[in-house]
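*** Backbone structure tokens ***
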Amino acid sequence: MKKYVQIVLPALVAALLACPSAQAQSLKDLLNRDNVEKLVGAVTGVNLAEMTGTWVYTGAAVEFESDNLLAKAGGAVAANTLAGKLDEQLQKLGFREGALSFTFEADSTFQATLGGKPVKGTYTYDQAENRVTLKLARLVPLKATLKYTSAQMDLLFNFDRLLDLVQLLAGKSGSGTLETISSLAEGYDGLLMGFALRKEE
């Protein structure tokens, strides 16, 4: 996002300073969150306001990458059954409704918090693919598929990447629960697993 700001911001500032009414407006005002979101949206076509904010965990989410895979796996029934099993295992690691949250800022930083313990990182959003890449210390970048509205969002990973994130947030490794989560994905190619979230008002 910084490179877009570097390219467009000088032109924006020059245009505003050319207007007498704009001279009273400080640089701080120009760089407030709302203006940055509008600027980036105009340049990239991405409305960061849709993703920014705090999203709170409501349960596990499971989806298949294509309609064909969904049909082969038994449809929505299979996805719902797997989501229930995944949620049951995640609860054993502290992933309960309201206990996990993700806060995405307009400056491409984010914070994941589980049970009051925060983990900070950065993110990039690919609008064309509708994917977000989370970058956290000690982990390779985690790519996730987004399914969201203004009030709800599913953050969906390949199961091995989900396990990496779960281990980091829960502070546990080698757990039998993690092995059980891994076994849920066996036999399902193209299965995405992750978190169902609601936007905090």
Summary: Confidence is low (pLDDT under 50) at residues 1-17, 19-25, 36-46.
